[in-house]
Amino acid sequence: MNFLFRILFIFLKIYTIHSLDNGLALTPPMGWLSWERFRCLTNCTAYPNECINEALFKRSADKMVSDGYLKAGYEYIIIDDCWSEKSRDSKNRLQADLERFPNGIKELADYIHSLGLKLGIYGDYGTMTCGGYPGSLDYLELDAQTFAEWGVDYLKLDGCYVDLEGMEEGYANMSRFLNATGRSIMFSCSFPAYKELKANYSMAVEYCNLWRNYGDIDDQWADVRDIATWFADNQKFLRQYAGPGHWNDPDMLIIGNFGLSLEQSKSQMTIWSILAAPLIMSVDLDTIQPEFKAILLNDNAIKINQDPLGIPGELVSKKDNILLWTKPLLGTEEVNGLAVGIVSNRTDGYYYHYNVDLTSLLQTDSYEQFHLTDVFDENSSLNGPLASTEIMVRVPPSGAVLLLISPIEE
Ligand SMILES: *[C@@H]1O[C@H](CO)[C@@H](O)[C@H](O)[C@H]1NC(C)=O
Ligand SMILES: *[C@@H]1O[C@H](CO)[C@@H](O)[C@H](O)[C@H]1NC(C)=O
Ligand SMILES: *[C@@H]1O[C@H](CO)[C@@H](O)[C@H](O)[C@H]1NC(C)=O
Ligand SMILES: *[C@@H]1O[C@H](CO)[C@@H](O)[C@H](O)[C@H]1NC(C)=O
Ligand SMILES: *[C@@H]1O[C@H](CO)[C@@H](O)[C@H](O)[C@H]1NC(C)=O
Ligand SMILES: *[C@@H]1O[C@H](CO)[C@@H](O)[C@H](O)[C@H]1NC(C)=O
User: Fold this and answer.
1) Ligand 3 nearest atom to the CA of residue 22, by list position
2) Mind listing the pLDDT tens digit for each residue in 354-391?
3) Nearest-angstrom CA–CA distance, 326 and 315
4) Does the beta carbon of 6 lie inside 6 Å of ligand 5?
5) Has this prediction a pTM greater than 0.85?
6) pLDDT tens-digit map of 44-80
7) Residue ranges of the domains in the chain?
8) Which fold has domain 17-305?
9) Which residue numbers are catalytic?
10) Residue 1 near ligand 1, beta carbon < 6 Å
């Protein structure tokens, strides 16, 4: 199928399904979330710089602005689990932990907004959150109103301690309650992750801006590889549901933490960009090393991820355990652009030399009309006008090469 047909096909599929119309997430959401790095650390005596408290979100927000993350597109700063008191207040409202958030969420939201950022918060559809804090079951409407009053811009609603039967309807109700507040609140749903492919994905599209599909990511390459493999194995099913306003979410970027090497970090950025995945970092922005930060801020990787067509990419071939991922990009009227990710799933010790044949990928052999950017290597000899339909790249084990191929404007 050529690209135009493929795009038409995707649009037709999506428009036979109603999709959430709150004007948000027209490109994959970008931001920062506390969970993977900071978990449920609540002892601020033992962990003064890492516990879940007001200071963590304020210092991370400051860094988002001062270090260029906001400028690059990372906009949401999102509180995950363990932010609340263990009980609701006298009016049954959720309340932030009185010691760790002494000024409350409203004040934090005001601070975040004053920097030009947006604030996200975490809740759970069930009786309790995964960390044992109050859940929203029986209080969905009140919690939606409370979040809106606080000035929250994004809600991640988890699915621990839930009766899986009828879970979709509960999330749909929450989506309506959020809408009824009149505040634009991005809605991140977790039910597909709990029901995997048995979830009603049409309802995810109809009621959510993004949704987790699969298990939590931890800080290791094996998880990036496992998630990527699951998305590849199920891509035919998953891709039809993602597009502007509604996205599959393979979970956080763990780049800059303990578990990924520099080359593996390029692999995660490559795969997430090509999947049109939300780019939600979870890292200590005060201690991240510059070479990891550069990957998160790479403007061409972000451009691929944020492409306005919003077409989730796919694994198109696998040879010698080298995975070739592609994503069509907005181009000219005549021809699309293309992102090509060459990801090594190998474990042997040296660079693997890999020949990429672009003829079938570009669906034209007039390569002269394209410009190539080797996204993570500004000194690459490949950078410049595309010189051939066959290009040779070297990929280190568990690393990646990401190519951006754009039509040259007349
Ligand atoms: C917090 O950590 C301190 C210092 O390690 C320890 O003495 C204290 O018992 C901990 N508090 C709780 C509630 O676990
Ligand atoms: C959703 O809302 C409808 C209408 O108010 C209600 O009948 C239904 O019980 C709710 N379902 C869940 C699972 O919350
Ligand atoms: C609520 O939903 C309506 C209809 O889908 C939409 O037009 C409106 O923008 C939504 N409002 C908010 C605040 O999300
Ligand atoms: C999913 O939900 C939609 C809308 O409520 C419904 O029409 C459809 O039958 C459901 N699909 C499945 C497979 O249950
Ligand atoms: C990557 O390698 C792992 C470990 O050998 C394997 O389980 C997985 O299927 C591979 N992924 C793909 C997409 O081939
Ligand atoms: C490109 O070359 C310059 C000059 O040699 C060097 O400073 C820079 O680090 C190189 N960039 C990369 C990504 O290797």
Assistant:
1) 14
2) 999 999 999 887 899 999 999 999 999 999 999 999 99
3) 7
4) no
5) yes
6) 999 999 999 999 999 999 999 999 999 999 999 999 9
7) 17-305, 314-407
8) TIM Barrel (3.20.20)
9) 158, 216
10) no
